[in-house]
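Next up, a specimen:

>
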Amino acid sequence: MDYLVVCLVAVLVSALTLFSGFGLGTVLMPAFALFFPVPVAVAATAVVHLANNIFKVFLVGRKADRGVVASFAIPGAIAAFIGAALLTFFAHLSPLYAYRLGGQAHEVTVVKLVIGALIIGFAFFELLPRFRLLAFNRKYLPWGGFVSGFFGGLSGNQGALRSAFLLKAGLGKEAFIGTGTVSAIIVDIARMLVYGLSFYTSKFADLGSIWTLVLAASLAAFLGAFVGTRLVKTITLGTIQNLVGIMLVIIGLGIGTGLL
C-alpha cells in the first residue's frame, strides 16, 4: 500500500507542478507521513524532490531566466539554511502532550505542530481562488525568494509562494517553468546541506530501511515530470486543486494533533 500511494502521488503531482501552484514536496511529504515518522518523511521527500528537480532541469532548465534566478534563488538559498536550521531545533524539543486513542499512544510535538500548521496553511493556496491568483510585483523578487526559501527549508512547502512571486516577473510560460525549476533545485541543495550536517544525519541513515520506496518514488516523479512537459499547458486544474487542498487540510490536522 505504501508503494502504491507514494508512487501514485509522485507521478501525478510531479506532472502537475510544472504548471500549477503547489509543489511536489507539499503533497508528497504528507503521503510519506502516512506511513513513516514526520522527520523520516521530510528527509525522504527531500531526496525525491532534489532528484526530481535535477531531472526537470535537463527537461526545462535551459529556458530559465538567469537574471531572475539570481535575484530570486540566492536569497532563497540563504533563507533555506535558516528554515532548515529552525526545523532541526524544533525536532530536538520534547513532546508537548501525549495521549492514548484506541489503545495507541500519540504525541503532539513542536515539529508536528509546525509541519501540520504549514500544510494546512498552504492548502488554502489550493482551496481559495484569491490565493490561487496571488501574484507580487517583480521588484519583490528577492523578498519572495527569501520567504519561499525559508518555508522550503522549514517544511518543504515552497511551490505556491515561488509561483506567486515569479508570475509577475515578466516571464513566458517556458521561462516561468524553467526559472522555477532551477530556483527550486538551489533551495533544495541548501536545505539538504543543513539536514545532512545536523539532525537529519541520523534520519537519512533511517532511509536505508526504505531506500527502495524512495527510489521508486523518485522514478515515479521522473515519469510524472516527463509526462507533464508533454501535457497541454492550458489544462484546467481547479477540481484537482480543491481535492489536493482538502487532502492537505485533513493530513495537516492529523500530523498536528499527533494522530499521524
Observations:
- The radius of gyration is 17 Å.
- The chain has twelve helices and two strands.
- The chain has a mean pLDDT of 75.
- Residues 2-256 form one domain.
